[in-house]
Amino acid sequence: PTILKVCKSTGFQAVELRTTHKHGVEPTISKSKRGEVKKQFADAGIKIWGSGSVCQFHENDPKVVSKNIETCKAFVDLVHDLGGAGVKVRPNGFVKGVDKAKTLAQIGQALIPCGKAAHSAGVEIWVEVHGNGTSEPAAMATIMKECDHPSVGVTWNSNPTDIQNGSIKAGLELLKPWIK
After folding, report:
1. N or C, which end of the chain is more exposed by having fewer CB within 10 Å?
2. What 3-state DSSP class applies to 80?
């Protein structure tokens, strides 16, 4: 109710529901609760744009990566049920002592099953340009080339490190094919 009230009063028409926040709209809610949430937003004239998850795929432990893939798929189901458009995920940097190229390839490969689930559900996966080193446009382009799934794209914050010669043009041109 607070989100809806604030969105209405400020003129926002859509919202990304970030995970672990007080609103409680998480993959663990029941189908009936999902219907109630969807109706609340529809009645208020506010669109659920998607979920901002903390699913990340850079970890050095394959079990953690697999768990995050499954969690991402649960968010895909949630967003589908809510009528949203996508799920935001992120890399969160490089793991010390692990080859950076290996990490970027691992992230890209982990995004493929997420993209397949998203495609089946009619939503998208939005990879936030995020994390120490992984937020560099060249790193994100490597991830996207490795993933190469049409339902997976980039959401770009345009970080201060993206400015080259006073412009974000170079990073924008590099990431443009994947910006969702």
Report:
1. N
2. helix
CA gap 178, 180 in Å, rounded:
6
Global pTM?
0.94
Hey, is 9 helix, strand or coil? helix
Rounded to the nearest 5 degrees, what angle is found at the Cα of 177, between the Cα atoms of 172 and 179?
A: 65
| pLDDT on residue 156 | 87
Q: What percent of the chain has pLDDT over 70?
A: 100
Element (H, E) at 31: helix 31-44
Count Cβ atoms within 10 A of the Cβ of residue 58 and give its class: 0-12 exposed, 13-18 middle, 19 or more buried.
Answer: buried
24 has pLDDT over 80: yes
Nearest to 73 by CA among 25, 116, 17, 114: 114
